[in-house]
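Q&A FORM
Asked by: J.P.
Topic: structure of 4Fe-4S dicluster domain-containing protein

PROVIDED:
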Amino acid sequence: MYSRMLVLHFPAEIVDKPIVCNLVKDFDLRFNILKATILPGKEGIMVMELSGHPKNFSKGLKYLREQGVEIKTIGQEIQRNDERCMQCGLCTAVCPTQALFIKRPEMEVVFAADKCSGCELCIAVCPPRAMEIRRQSQVAI
Ligand code: SF4
Ligand code: SF4
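REPLIED BY: S.T.
REPLY: Here is the structure written out as tokens.
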């Protein structure tokens, strides 16, 4: 069984199509969706663990690309600029892996980099742009 964490970007034109369901039906793959959200521009982002036989996995990814889905592996590093962070907590509502969480009772927003999947959802919601990407390790597949 082959398994990988993926970040799927769905352009607005295809965001309402049942593309992901076909991975099970047509390619015998299994998925576990950690987070799915629609961004203000109407495009969708889905973070999932996808598993299956390697041959089916490749076919499934080919199918996704043919539908217009952009696929990235979790190969990028996210960091927080602590000087910019104003501790508003917005990022904790979108983080699928709880890498960003509120520590109680201090009510401090903590970033645990070792739990980060690199999905970038926090970047879109952070008002002062405190969450940053180290681009050199991002891998599109
Ligand atoms: S990129 Fe941001 S939202 Fe995604 S897992 Fe990492 S900290 Fe959480
Ligand atoms: S959304 Fe940005 S400013 Fe707000 S707590 Fe998260 S990292 Fe800090």
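FOLLOW-UP: The CA atoms of residues 6 and 120 lie 12 Å apart.
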